[in-house]
Write a structure and sequence with these properties.
Shape: globular
CATH superfamily: NagB/RpiA/CoA transferase-like
CATH class: Alpha Beta
Strand content: 15-25%
Number of domains: 1
Number of strands: 12
Order of helices and strands: HHEHEEEEEEEEHEEE
Largest sheet: 8 strands, mixed
Structural class: alpha/beta
CATH architecture: 3-Layer(aba) Sandwich
Radius of gyration: 16 Å
Strand order of the largest sheet: 6-3-2-1-7-10-11-12
Length: 196
Amino acid sequence: MSAPKDDLAAVKQALRKEAQAARAAAAAAAPQDAAERMRDSLLQRVTTWPGAVVSAYWPMGDELDPLPAVKALAAQGHPICLPVVIGNNQPLVFRAWKPGNPLVPAAFGTREPPAESPEMEPDLLLVPLLAFDRRGYRLGYGGGFYDRTLVAMRARKAIQAVGIGFAGQELPEVPHDELDQKVDLIVTETGAITPE
């Protein structure tokens, strides 16, 4: 679904409100072990190699919690990092983190590693979303941080971006334009979806 930029921004903004309500309903209806089910599907479908750096996100509100998957990947020896917003219209940077290490309050109500944590460049990114479709398009929060980050990283090396969310967050089509980056895989509590 392509549209003029101003129209597309308005469509996305309206859709975000609906998507937040749909995610809340999906989270409320999900089984108690949804995060563990997502972890199991992720570990079955994602191909990693020794030392591959994994970026996750600190869950906010009713986002599907990636931490069980992160702990499993860390136990396999993968270095872990979390995203950090450094400014509007900037790609994210990623700082080293280990499960259990302290975090500091950050933009948008999330948490991030402290400034003294070393920067890393991930090979596998676990990406939060408000909604997704089967072509791999995701609706984010509107800052464009992941889109800019994926463009920059994909220009440098091969990476794998995995959207994480509840199955109930799926839409028939997510509106997008040429700036929107697709994810390579979507993993929910019911399984994994390879984009068409």
